[in-house]
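SUBJECT: A protein chain and its fold
Encoding: whole-number codes for local backbone shapes
RECORD BEGINS BELOW THIS LINE
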Amino acid sequence: MFKIVYLFPLFLVLVLAGCAHQTTNNNSTPIKTIKLGVIMPLSGDAAAYGEQAQRVMEYYLPQINERYKDKNIKFEAVYEDGKCSGNDAVSALQKLTDIDGAKIIIGGFCSSETLAIAPLTKDGHVLAVSSGSSNSAIEGASPYLFTLSYRDDVVAKKLADETGKYKTVAIISEQNDYNVGMRKNWLEAMKAYPNTKIVADETFPKGANDFRSILEKVRKTNPDAIFLNPNAGMPSQDLIKQLAEIKDWNGYQLISQYMYMSPEILKAAPAKSEGMIIVDSPSIDNPELLAIKKDIEASKGTLTDLGVYYTASTIDTLNVVTSLIAELGDDPKLVRQALVTRDFKGYISDDINFKNSNFTPTGAAVYVVKNGAVELQK
């Protein structure tokens, strides 16, 4: 069901450093078990993303272990709940490194998690590779921190291309690392559209659930378009639901980013979300990936919130990280050197590389909600 898409030398370093313990196979040959630390939100508003990424890993990691069976290598994922919170992510990293002995981390998933652990990776004792963190502040945050996510500033530019089509626009943002960064990038990108006036720029605390006063302020400005910029979970659902409850306010275009790709959130206000423009990750239609996603959902559960891109990036992260560890051992310095000097093939791209950035090169795509479903805009 899967293909091996990573090329590496035919030799393996047989002595793997760090957090490995030995068992034996049926031939009494020692098997080296390598612990992969994993930080993702397994509780809280963003839990759906972490739980679904975990489903991908639990489905795919046994296939990776089968791949390296003849090399007597086995990978074991050790999960910690980052809760989409900086403080919790730091505690998770410390537990994974100090107690579990992990030297290679997959995560965090949320940008808040990844930005918080960045300072703890700078000395090279641990390396972190995220499959989901998109905040452009990750660029330069640490030489031992990488992400296979698309970039917020790339998405923000595409968002500005959409909001720049209107004479007046309002933005409503949540106050957390991801949305603060998106707002900052969007405001910068909007400088290319001097004929569009930003008539309202409202923010609300992380996790808020009452937006009526903010919506009333925005309503008074009568914008042609509204950029909804909440984070994942209940805030995004409550925001559009309360917007829909204002019966006599229409005539504006809704524009947003990835959290409104979720069918469950769109169901909160189906009439209001119809026609919404959403800017998100590049569209991926690889038949093999789509078949894998279908198999994962059949055996492990839905990946609706994670979507095609982050399903692909989670698989690619596992493939890149495990192939390098199998070759080089789990020495963060050796793995980093390979990451920044090589090219890899994957599902998100045929050219995954970190030669010039903490991000791999990606783009963005524009989608529209039609009949309650999200479709790629032609």
Q: What stands out?
A: The domain at 153-280 is CATH 3.40.50.2300 (Rossmann fold). The CA atoms of residues 145 and 373 lie 35 Å apart.
